[in-house]
């Protein structure tokens, strides 16, 4: 700081303005810091000590413009609360606690080091880049360790990194053997791949001493509080703790500082309290005494501590970021003063001095500091965000431990929310590999599964329908795929349906074709013998309507084999329903004709005769079914459906969509069949030369039984043969009607032609009523 102030005073940055300083040692203690701050805030008129040479004869009122410090976060918090009262700018070179970013509590606080929020993000990205999945965290009961460890814990959990433990070390950890043993036991029994120690070096030293004693080797991640500490790196047997990766705020050399130290050492009879304090912090000059401040012991030999080579060697060994951060803090204040006083290289336009601790003066300077844009290197600049935090990144380095000591080997940086690593070396020795049956990675076909309560993960085989290609987690195959036997990939499912070359399809098509041919033959036969009594007894033209409808039933069977489509699904069952309804309606109309012809002795003969209108009966009965089918196809049309419920197949089937309409159409046919059955059964007492009633009874009974069995089977069945069962039911009912209703008539036409005469019919009727002693002639 002294060097930076002297550099500014000897430059033209602030012409005719000299910066002074007062330096207080807070001893890293809050009470000392508060006492020093209150002393700075006193309004006294005395000569500034150490700020100017006596020959300059300069006196000034103590007029503190800004405060630089403190290094510790908890000390800076206490000081910032005082300085916030009158908005005196405070710039810290080492306090990193994220709570200091809260401007509502610390409005005049800024810093040249980033907050722990950024450091925590850098450590999180480091862990992710190294592909570590399990970590442990140590913090401490102070502003630095408590908030930093909490932020790390949140980051890891958000990024799916398992935190096996987060321990906040007690304030008396250095002297608490029980707490140390608990910590060491937790480390020794953990499954962590890396342990983050986010605390100060005195706690770290205690942990490492215990780890070395127990022979614990781990991968440690050092926060900036101890990552460059020589007190830690020079511990005996430090190489036994394992690998140490550190993060530190980006370091830059203070320009000209080496020469300045050489110049200091070359001064004769130099006695500097500041220099003495500075040198006493380094091991190479630990022999320095207050009686002989110019002498020190190093490796058993006496050297002159102010020797240029001694200072140069000492400074080269200093790996910390603080010198440059302090240098930047002074530069920022000077730049803000230059802007506020409107200075050029020769003079300052605003020569009015600030009044000591005036709120307005402090606020003006504070606002100027916030707007500073200071060049750090040729391609980087220091600016402050709205929270007073700088745009500074982090270096990531390895401790390279050898016989000569520890070298810090930088292998990455974190800046602008991005991590850049020159190498990714996640060693696979006993420090990193999880112990026991735990796994860090799995072969393809397996996934890592966490065990409850620990970060120990084990490999488990992917379930059916899932696969893993080495990404450590199983993924689900799409609905059209299934996992292969090794669970390493997905295979496209086979489309399953009732194919044309399936034996069942061939049988259905064969029987359907035979039915079509037989129906056409009957149609031709009836057309040839249309004037004969037996064709007339079948309903005349009504029988041709029935045969055409029956032809539609057999044709509908052809829509069931093959790949279902929306068209085939919509046409299949409705076509059968309408066609078979017409058939049954024709049968019912024919039965009503027979009843009307022989109803002279039946007590319901009058109203039955009014129903002797075959065309009207067929149209009325058929129209109900037609309306039902139109509503079904309009509101809930059957459609192709892909059933993915099977493991390796996609069942392509027809979905009726509306079970209500599906059952309704079949129920309506059942209703007509039941009516026909009742009339046919009742008609057995009538003269029936051709046994119509008996055969119709059998046909309708077959329909009722077949579809009563079919409906529950169909609703609960699944598979490609579901449509085959449906087609089979259609064939059985169609053949029953063809065989029972039209078969006997064809037999009489072809082989019993003598019964196909009117005289035969009259004689049969006469004998029927004679046997019943009923006269066929009425007045």
TrEMBL record:
GO terms of biological process kind: sensory perception of taste
InterPro entries assigned: ANF_lig-bd_rcpt, GPCR_3, GPCR_3_9-Cys_sf, GPCR_3_C, GPCR_3_Ca_sens_rcpt-rel, Peripla_BP_I
Gene3D superfamilies: 3.40.50.2300, GPCR, family 3, nine cysteines domain
Pfam families per record: 7tm_3, ANF_receptor
Subcellular localization(s) per the UniProt record: Cell membrane
Stretches assigned to the G-protein coupled receptors family 3 profile domain: 504-756
Transmembrane segments: 504-529, 541-563, 575-602, 614-636, 656-681, 693-715, 727-744
Keywords, sorted A to Z: Cell membrane, G-protein coupled receptor, Glycoprotein, Membrane, Receptor, Signal, Transducer, Transmembrane, Transmembrane helix
Keyword Nucleotidyltransferase in record: no
UniProt topology in membrane: Multi-pass membrane protein
Molecular-function GO terms, alphabetical: G protein-coupled receptor activity
A Gene Ontology term for the protein's cellular component: plasma membrane
Family the entry assigns: Belongs to the G-protein coupled receptor 3 family. TAS1R subfamily.
Protein name: G-protein coupled receptor family C group 6 member A-like
Organism (species): Chanos chanos
Lineage: Eukaryota, Metazoa, Chordata, Craniata, Vertebrata
Gene name of this polypeptide: LOC115822387
């Amino acid at each position: 700081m002294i060097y930076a102030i002297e550099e500014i005073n000897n430059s033209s940055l602030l012409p005719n303005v000299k910066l002074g300083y007062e330096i207080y040692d807070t001893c890293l203690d809050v009470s000392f810091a508060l006492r020093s701050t209150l002393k700075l805030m006193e309004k006294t008129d005395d000569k500034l000590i150490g700020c100017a040479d006596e020959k300059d004869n300069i006196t000034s009122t103590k007029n503190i413009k800004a405060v630089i410090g403190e290094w510790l976060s908890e000390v800076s918090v206490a000081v910032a609360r005082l300085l916030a009262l009158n908005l005196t700018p405070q710039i810290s070179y080492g306090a990193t606690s994220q709570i200091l970013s809260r401007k509502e509590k610390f409005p005049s606080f800024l810093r040249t080091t980033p907050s722990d929020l950024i450091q925590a993000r850098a450590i999180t990205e480091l862990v992710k880049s190294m592909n570590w999945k399990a970590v442990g965290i140590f913090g401490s009961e102070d502003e630095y360790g408590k908030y930093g460890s909490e932020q790390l814990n949140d980051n890891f959990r958000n990024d799916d990194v398992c935190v096996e433990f987060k321990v906040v070390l007690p304030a008396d950890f250095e002297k608490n053997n029980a707490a140390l043993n608990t910590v060491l036991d937790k480390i020794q029994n953990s499954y962590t791949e890396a342990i983050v120690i986010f605390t100060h070096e005195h706690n770290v030293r205690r942990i490492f001493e215990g780890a070395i004693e127990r022979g614990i080797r781990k991968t440690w991640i050092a926060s900036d509080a101890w990552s460059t500490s020589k007190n830690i790196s020079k511990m005996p047997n430090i190489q036994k703790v394992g690998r140490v990766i550190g993060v530190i705020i980006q370091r830059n050399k203070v320009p000209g500082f080496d020469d300045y130290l050489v110049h200091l050492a070359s001064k004769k009879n130099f006695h500097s309290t500041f220099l003495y304090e500075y040198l006493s912090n380094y091991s190479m000059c630990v022999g320095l005494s207050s009686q002989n401040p110019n002498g020190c012991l190093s490796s058993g030999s006496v050297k002159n501590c102010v020797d240029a080579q001694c200072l140069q060697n000492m400074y080269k060994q200093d790996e910390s970021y603080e010198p440059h951060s302090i240098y930047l803090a002074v530069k920022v204040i000077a730049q803000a003063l230059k802007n506020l006083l409107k200075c050029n290289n020769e003079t300052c336009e605003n020569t009015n001095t600030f009044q000591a601790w005036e709120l307005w003066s402090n606020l003006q300077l504070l606002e100027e500091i916030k707007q500073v844009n200071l060049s750090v290197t040729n391609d980087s600049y220091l600016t402050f965000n709205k929270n007073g935090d700088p745009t500074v990144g982090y270096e990531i380095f390895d401790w390279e431990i050898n016989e000569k000591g520890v070298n810090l080997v930088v292998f990455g940086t974190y800046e602008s929310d991005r991590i850049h690593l020159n190498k990714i070396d996640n060693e696979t020795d006993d420090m990193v590999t999880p112990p026991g049956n735990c796994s860090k990675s799995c072969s393809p076909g397996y996934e890592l599964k966490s065990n409850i309560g620990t970060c120990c993960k084990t490999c488990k085989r992917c379930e059916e329908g899932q696969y893993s290609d080495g990404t450590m987690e199983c993924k689900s195959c799409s609905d059209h795929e299934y996992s292969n036997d090794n669970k390493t990939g997905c295979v496209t499912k086979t489309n399953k349906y009732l194919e044309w070359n399936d034996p069942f399809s061939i049988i259905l098509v064969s029987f359907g074709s035979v039915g079509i041919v037989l129906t056409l033959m009957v149609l031709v036969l009836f057309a040839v013998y249309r004037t004969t009594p037996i064709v007339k007894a079948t309903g005349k033209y009504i029988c041709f309507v029935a045969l055409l409808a029956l032809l539609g039933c057999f044709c509908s069977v052809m829509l069931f084999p093959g790949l279902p489509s929306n068209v085939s699904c919509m046409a299949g069952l409705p076509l059968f329903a309408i066609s078979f309804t017409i058939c049954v309606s024709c049968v019912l109309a024919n039965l009503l004709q027979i009843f009307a012809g022989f109803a002279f002795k039946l007590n319901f003969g009058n109203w039955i005769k009014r129903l002797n209108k075959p065309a009207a009966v067929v149209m009325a009965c058929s129209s109900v079914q037609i309306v039902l089918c139109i509503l079904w196809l309009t509101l809930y049309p059957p459609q192709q459906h892909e059933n993915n419920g099977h493991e390796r197949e996609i069942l392509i089937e027809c979905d009726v969509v509306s079970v209500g309409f599906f059952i309704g159409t079949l129920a309506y046919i059942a209703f007509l069949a039941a009516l026909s059955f009742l009339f046919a059964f009742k008609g057995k007492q009538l003269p029936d030369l051709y046994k119509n009633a008996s055969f119709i009874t059998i046909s309708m009974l077959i329909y009722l039984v077949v579809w009563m069995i079919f409906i529950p089977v169909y609703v609960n069945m699944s598979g490609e043969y579901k449509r085959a069962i449906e087609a089979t039911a259609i064939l059985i009912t169609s053949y029953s009607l063809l065989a029972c209703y039209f078969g006997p008539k064809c037999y009489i036409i072809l082989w019993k032609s003598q019964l196909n005469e009117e005289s035969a019919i009259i004689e049969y009727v006469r004998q029927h009523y004679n046997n019943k002693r009923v006269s066929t002639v009425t007045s």
